[in-house]
Amino acid sequence: MKRDWDVVRDLLTQLEELPNRDHYVSLGNFQFSDKDAAHTISYHMELLIEAGLVEGKMRPVLGGGPINFTASRLTWAGHEFLDAIRSDTVWNKTKETFVSKGLDMTYETIKAVASAVGASMLGLSS
Q1: Which fold has domain 5-75?
Q2: Residue 52: which residues within 8 A CB-CB, separation 6 or more?
Q3: Within a 10 A sphere around the Cβ of 113, how many other Cβ atoms?
Q4: How do the domains of the chain map onto residue ranges?
Q5: What does 71-114 look like in DSSP terms, one character per residue?
Q6: Residue 30, helix vs strand vs coil
Q7: Distance in angstroms (rounded) separating the CA atoms of residues 125 and 35
Q8: pTM score, whole prediction
Q9: What confidence score (pLDDT) does residue 9 get?
Q10: Residues 6 or more apart from 16 whose CB is under 8 A from it?
Q11: What is the dihedral angle through the alpha carbons of 4, 7, 11, 16, rounded to the nearest 10 degrees?
């Protein structure tokens, strides 16, 4: 399965909106139009936990379905990354930059490009 950065951004945003650490999201918090969507959400949450952007646990299920999870909050790195890509304008310009240059998006390059886009919008770069 390919990593989908829009799904990553959506999951980080939803976690940030939790009222406190006593709340969490799980696979059951999402409504799916098809079975593939559940697998996509599960896969991306697993990536976010592995990357240290989200505090959570994966919970295997029987039968080969999507893996359930519980996620309670963003880590410091998760907040920093989401802050860099939160703005729809910055996010769209960041994605456009990668498309126009014909490059693949990676965590580090997204942070760098989004920061440069934000700095440019603030008039902080030449």
Answers
A1: Arc Repressor Mutant, subunit A (1.10.10)
A2: 75, 77, 78
A3: 22
A4: 5-75, 87-121
A5: EEEE-HHHHHHHHHH-SHHHHHHHHHHHHHHT----HHHHHHHH
A6: coil
A7: 45
A8: 0.86
A9: 95
A10: 74, 79, 82
A11: 100
